[in-house]
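Troubleshooting log. The previous structure file for this entry was overwritten by mistake, so regenerating from the original sequence record. Sequence copied from the archived sheet and checked twice against the printout by T.R.
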Amino acid sequence: MQFSPRQMTTMALVGTTAAASGYLLYLAVPIPGLKFALLSPLLSLMMALPVMIAGKRGTILATSLVLATVMGLVSLFMSAAIVIAGVLTEAAAWCLARRASSTRSMRSVAASYPTLALLVAATLSHYVTGNRLFALAWPVLIVLVVLTQLLGTLGALVAEQILLPRLFLARQRWERE
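Regenerated output below.
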C-alpha cells in the first residue's frame, strides 16, 4: 500500500471526522439496536470519500486503522470490530471486485463496510461479552442487516454524486487562486 501524502491526509481527516461525528450521533440516537443502521450512511459516506479519491486497494483498511486508533480511546472492542471489518471489507473487495478503480466497485465496497461492521460487532458481542447478537431475534437481525446495507448504499451514493464533485470543484478553484 503506497499512498501519497495527500491521500494519507485525506484518510486521516476522514477517520477522525468519522470518529467524532459518529460518536456524537451514537450518543444522540436513543434506540440501541438501530444505532448501527442509522449510522451506516455516515460511515459509508466517510469510507467512500477516501476510496474514491485514492482509487487504490487498501484504502478502506488504512482508513479503518485510523478510525480504530481514535476509537480505541473509547472502547477496545469497538476498535477491534473496526479493524476486523476493514480487513473483511478489503478481502471481499479483493475477491469480488476485479477492478479497484471502477466507480461501481468503489461504491459497493464503501456501502458494504457498515454491514460488515454490524456483523463483526454482533459476533464480537456474542463471543466476547456474551450478548446474543444484540439480543435480537434472527428475523429482526436480517432486517437490520438489509436496512444497514441499503442505508450504506445511500451514503456511498451521496458521497459519489454530491460530495465528490463539490470537493473537486473546490480544489480546482483553490489551485487557480
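The two ends are 32 Å apart (CA to CA). Archived copy saved in two places this time.
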